[in-house]
Amino acid sequence: MSVKIRLRRTGKLNQACHRIVVCDGRSPRDGRFIEVIGYYDPRHEDEKINLERVDYWIPRGAQPSDTVKKIIERARTGKKLGKAAAAEA
């Protein structure tokens, strides 16, 4: 079983929001998951991820998707997403 850390789409049509989930790599995008470890809302430029759970899953073989890798990097460095980062600079 290959474990993935990836985005699960929620929200209405044309108003996407995502949950960051740990799941089996064979499950569909919005299918069964093991654990919810955060969320990502690109419309409101808001994101949150539980780094303790990320640090638990990655040594156990979980592979983050490209987008989730970027979210983890921003969370570790304390950077904001999008316009919020530009406003603080």
Assign the CATH class: Alpha Beta
Distance N terminus to C terminus?
A: 43 Å
CATH architecture: 2-Layer Sandwich
Which stretches are low in confidence, meaning pLDDT under 50 for 5 or more residues running? none
Report the sheet-strand fraction: 35-45%
* CATH level-3 fold name: S16 Ribosomal Protein, Chain: A
The average pLDDT value, as a whole number, equals 89
CA-based gyration radius: 13 Å
Structural class: alpha+beta
Order of helices and strands: EEEEHEHH
The tally of beta strands, per DSSP, is 5
Task: Describe the overall structure.
By secondary structure, the chain is of the alpha+beta class. The chain has a single domain (3-80), classed as S16 Ribosomal Protein, Chain: A. It has 3 helices and 5 strands. It has helices at 51-57, 66-77, 83-88, and strands at 3-12, 15-24, 35-41, 46-49, 63-64. The chain has a 5-stranded mixed sheet with strand order 4-3-2-1-5. β3 (35-41) and β4 (46-49) form a beta hairpin. The model has no long low-confidence stretch (mean pLDDT 89).
What features would you highlight for this structure?
89 residues, alpha+beta, S16 Ribosomal Protein, Chain: A, five-stranded mixed sheet, 3 helices, 5 strands, 37% strand
Describe what is shown at a glance.
The protein is built from three helices and five strands, in the order ββββαβαα. It is an alpha+beta fold and 89 residues long. It is flat.
